[in-house]
Each structure stands twice: as structure tokens, then as C-alpha cells.
Specification:
This protein is an alpha+beta fold. It has one domain. About 15% of the residues lie in helices and about 35% in strands. It contains one helix and five strands, in the order βββαββ. A three-stranded antiparallel β-sheet has the order 1-2-3. It has a two-stranded antiparallel ribbon with strand order 4-5. A hairpin with a 5-residue loop joins strand 2 and strand 3. The protein starts with a strand and ends in a 5-residue tail after the last strand.
Length: about 80
């Protein structure tokens, strides 16, 4: 699941969570800066994990995902 930070936070992060709720990482700032506001306006996106490393992998290299945006119904 993709979960954007609430509006007004210092950094507008979009977090990737497992379906059971555990956060496993966040998207790069370059993507989160436009995707977070878009999701909060009603945009829908799906995320597909391509690679998830373990705790021994640096956090910035741990998560590789594919994000697909669906703008249907978004104004």
C-alpha cells in the first residue's frame, strides 16, 4: 500500500506499507513531492514490489517498486 504523509508535514513522504500495516520504506523525494499531494486529492496508485532487501541492505537501496497511477475519476 502507498500511504502519503498528512498535509503540512516538513517532507512530503509517501510510505510503502505491507497489507498488514508494516512500513517497509518510502519513495524517493522526487516522486513523493508530486505523488503525495496527488494521492490526497483522490488519485489512485498501485505498487508492486520488485526487490525488497533485508536489514543488512542500506535503507536507500532496500526497496525497489513499480508504481502505476490511475487517474480515472481524478479532477
Amino acid at each position: 500500500m502507498l500511504v502519503p504523509d498528512p498535509p503540512g508535514t516538513a517532507l512530503d513522504q509517501v510510505w510503502v506499507h505491507l497489507h498488514r500495516g508494516d512500513a517497509i520504506g518510502h519513495l524517493p523525494n522526487e516522486i513523493a513531492s508530486w505523488l503525495g499531494p496527488w494521492l490526497r486529492r483522490g488519485g489512485r496508485a498501485t505498487v508492486r514490489p520488485l526487490r525488497v532487501g533485508d536489514d543488512g541492505v542500506p535503507s536507500w537501496k532496500r526497496l525497489l517498486v513499480e508504481v502505476a497511477c490511475d487517474g480515472a475519476g481524478l479532477r
